[in-house]
Structures are given as structure tokens and as C-alpha cells.
Design goal:
248 residues, mainly alpha, two-stranded antiparallel ribbon, 9 helices, membrane, ABC/ECF_trnsptr_transmembrane, Cobalt ECF transporter T component CbiQ, Cobalt_transport_CbiQ, transmembrane
């Protein structure tokens, strides 16, 4: 199981209705994207981190492992805004207002990433998908995502087993052996994924599949007080960001 899924299933917020968590982190995400970067995006990120590391008890180490690659991608994209190509003075030159645009893009993206990861670390996808179908999302799309999500763990376990067997046979001792073993690993996982998909389709047909999978989901009640409490942090961030003269 992936670290995000393991943390989501063991989170103390597992029993909290996804609508409540969606109101909280979705509202903070909207603040990060709509409000000014300073202080809107900064306050949204701080609020999401405070709630995630506090009541939701998201493991900081797992969060750091999940966030560093997207953050590196964000920073790499922001660096390109510091230069301009094909200007009148030089082919490559510093952009006049590049640092401001780079900081805005990086700030918004980092804040949005924090909000999304905190929601993912506290809400298992298996609890979210059936409710998306009830909200009107096409059933075929929801079931495709669910089956792909479940198959992902099977394929990851298959790849891990094959790689362990290859390593036991010294398949990664040299660079040439590493490349050859990696190619064999990819080919084996590709073939087995098609075989498992064929068997899954046949199993669904034998069970009378007619276009919809019936799944029982534990539905805790949505309390208006919980929704109101979840909306308070985004509203507070919006009020603090839009209050004139409060921030430099």
C-alpha cells in the first residue's frame, strides 16, 4: 500500500464525512488560487498544514516524501519565468518582472499542493469515489477510476516481486544487467496487466455485470455544525487576506 493510502486509512479523520473535509481543504484550495499570493496563498498553506499536522495527524515524514517531487517540479517551472527568450537586446535575458511572476506561480502552486495532499492523507479514495457517483459524476468514469486504483496495487506488488527475484539472481550488479533487467521487468508487468484485466472482465461478466458495481459505503451523517466549522478556516483566511492595511 502506498504511504498516502496507508496514512488515509489510519487517519483519525477517516470517519469524518468527505463533504466536511472537502469543505475545509477545498475552501482553502480556492483561497490559494483566488486570493492574492501574499497573504492569501501563504495563509491557506499554513492553515492546511496546521490542520493536517494537528487534528488530522498526518505523518510529517510521509507528507515530505509525497510533496518533494511536485514541489521540485513547481520550482523548476518557476525558474523558467525569470528569463525571457528572443528579446530586442539579447536572445536570452532576465525578464523585467520575472521574479514576481515566478514567486506568484510558485506560491499558489505550493499552497494548492499542501491543501490537496492534506485532503488525500485524510480521505481514502475508496470512501470518496462512491459519493462522487451520487453527486452526478458518470458511473462509468467512477468505476474505471476505482478499478484502475485497485489494479495499481496489484501491479506494484507484481513489480516488487519480479524485481526482488531479479535482484536475487544478480540482475542489477552492472549497468548492462540493470538495463536488461529493467526492460524485462517492464515487459513482464505490461503483459501481466493485460492478463489480469482480461480475467477481471471475464469475472465481471460471469457475475452479471450490467454497467454498475454496487458497493456498500458507511455513510456517517453530515452535521451542519461540522460543515460550518469546516468553513470557518477558509472564511477566516479570506477575511484576513482581504482586510485592508493588515498586511505589508
Amino acid at each position: 500500500m502506498l504511504a498516502i493510502d496507508a496514512a488515509a486509512h489510519s487517519s483519525p479523520w477517516r470517519r469524518v464525512h468527505p463533504a466536511v473535509k472537502g469543505t475545509l481543504f477545498g475552501g482553502l484550495l480556492a483561497c490559494a488560487l483566488v486570493l492574492p499570493v501574499w497573504p492569501g496563498a501563504a495563509l491557506s498553506a499554513l492553515a492546511a498544514l496546521a490542520v493536517g499536522f494537528g487534528p488530522a495527524r498526518v505523518p510529517p515524514r510521509a507528507f515530505a516524501r509525497a510533496a518533494w517531487v511536485p514541489l521540485l517540479f513547481v520550482l523548476t517551472g518557476a525558474v523558467t519565468m525569470l528569463v525571457s527568450v528572443g528579446g530586442p537586446d539579447a536572445v536570452l535575458a532576465w525578464a523585467p518582472d520575472g521574479w514576481r511572476r515566478a514567486a506568484e506561480v510558485a506560491g499558489r502552486a505550493a499552497a494548492a499542493l499542501c491543501c490537496q495532499l492534506m485532503f488525500a492523507f485524510s480521505t481514502p479514495l475508496a470512501d470518496l469515489l462512491p459519493r462522487l457517483a451520487r453527486l452526478g459524476l458518470p458511473t462509468a468514469l467512477v468505476e474505471t477510476v476505482a478499478l484502475t486504483y485497485r489494479m495499481l496495487f496489484v501491479l506494484l506488488d507484481t513489480a516488487r516481486r519480479i524485481r526482488t527475484a531479479q535482484a536475487g539472481r544478480l540482475g542489477y550488479q552492472t549497468r548492462a544487467a540493470w538495463v536488461r533487467s529493467l526492460g524485462v521487468l517492464g515487459a513482464a508487468v505490461f503483459v501481466r496487466s493485460f492478463e489480469r484485466a482480461r480475467r477481471m472482465r471475464r469475472g465481471l461478466e460471469c457475475r452479471g455485470y450490467e454497467g454498475e458495481l454496487t458497493v456498500l459505503v458507511d455513510t456517517p451523517p453530515v452535521r451542519p455544525a461540522a460543515l460550518l466549522a469546516a468553513a470557518l478556516p477558509p472564511l477566516s483566511v479570506a477575511a484576513a487576506a482581504l482586510h485592508p492595511g493588515m498586511w505589508p
